[in-house]
Amino acid sequence: MVTSLNQSKDCQGYTVNLTSVYYDGPTLYVGYSVKVSAVSEKEVPIPEWEVVDSRELTRYSFTNDIVNRAQGTLTGVLSLRLHGDRPKSFQLNLEAKKIGTIQSNGELKFSIPVSREKIAPTLYEGSPEISKTFGDLTITTRKLVMTPTVTDLSVQVKGPRAKSLVFRVEDSAETYLDTGNSSSRPYMESYLYHVSLPSLDLNQTPYLILQAGYRQYVFGQDKKTYDLSLSTKYPIVLPHLPGEVQIQGINALPDKTILTYSVRKPENQMQEFLLEDGEGKQYAPLSNYPKRVDRKTYTYQLEYPKVALTRGSKLRYTVIYKDGKPVEPTKFPYEIKIPIKK
């Protein structure tokens, strides 16, 4: 269950507030917000968080995800994935060490009691036990657990290069899901991967497709950055990028900016686009994972903070070249379809 918090502290013009904590067993989530104490239009810097003096936590991975940025405020979620044995109860001690260039000097320390008795409800749990062999590599999906905040997929891999795999997960709309909080460890002459995904709508997810491949290391590469004026007419094909990428339009809403683009094949949906306003300030998307908005075509959208679009606004993108040719995305040749039986 979600437990509301209201731990608030001030430091040199910023107010940091822990808003909620959610524990679903393997992962602990802490919601927080940062506000500029005085009225200001400046963008709030991302705080640098650390886990401090929590001796019960011996093995974990830690991420800081930004949920929203608006004028003078920032909200985010801290995710701690606990590996191995998990303590029944413990005190989680967090500290925001820095906000931008400002050192907190111990003024932003927080302590949260956590208990395993407060476990989030499981929406779905299954053991697909689907195994496929690709040459000397055997991939087996072991367990799939869905909760209101996270989806966890356990995958066992056997083979001489088992520990070198990278995974990608695609939903039934052929949209790639965020796997940024995943982990792996040796397990009985194999490797066990925990592929962590966002929460999914059980009614809208009849199956998942697990894709695996080996990360490409391109040496002798050359990067080039290109700019596209946002005052042009749409659609427009972006030169140099593989996959026939077309910008379909850009929409400035009161609280955010939405960029719409299409690609010829779904493997080209992941793009690194920056928006630049007329004063040269650049904006990254709120999430690197786009949302597919058209089932008939491979059309996607990325959301950005509110950007003041003027005549000098640009879209900036980078192309990586090898031997004079654009480098194609990493290949994921191994696939397993995982049905979700309700």
Q: Write down the overall mean pLDDT.
A: 84
**How many helices in DSSP terms?**
0
Say how many strands there are: 28
CATH architecture of the largest domain: Sandwich
Round the Cα radius of gyration to an integer and report it: 22 Å
CATH third-tier fold name of the largest domain: Immunoglobulin-like
The number of domains is 3
CATH class membership of the largest domain: Mainly Beta
Low-confidence runs of at least 5 consecutive residues: none
Q: Tell me the series of helices and strands, N- to C-terminal.
A: EEEEEEEEEEEEEEEEEEEEEEEEEEEE
Gap from first CA to last CA = 22 Å
Q: Residue share in helices?
A: under 10%
Structural write-up:
- There is one protein chain.
- The model has no long low-confidence stretch (mean pLDDT 84).
- The protein folds into three domains: 2-115, Sandwich (Immunoglobulin-like); 124-216 and 330-339, Immunoglobulin-like (Sandwich), CATH 2.60.40.1640; 222-322, Immunoglobulin-like.
- The strands form six sheets. Strands 10, 11, 12, 13, 15 and 16 form a six-stranded antiparallel beta sheet that branches. A five-stranded antiparallel beta sheet has the order 1-2-3-6-5, with no helix packed on it. Strands 18, 22, 23, 26 and 27 form a five-stranded antiparallel beta sheet that branches.
- The two termini are 22 Å apart.
- It is globular.
- It is built from no helices and 28 strands.
- The chain is an all-beta fold and 342 residues long.
- The protein has strands at residues 2-11, 14-23, 27-36, 47-51, 60-70, 73-82, 89-99, 102-103, 109-115, 124-126, 130-134, 137-146, 150-158, 165-170, 183-186, 191-198, 207-214, 222-229, 236-237, 246-252, 256-262, 273-276, 282-283, 291-294, 299-305, 314-322, 325-326, 334-339.
- This is DUF5643 domain-containing protein.
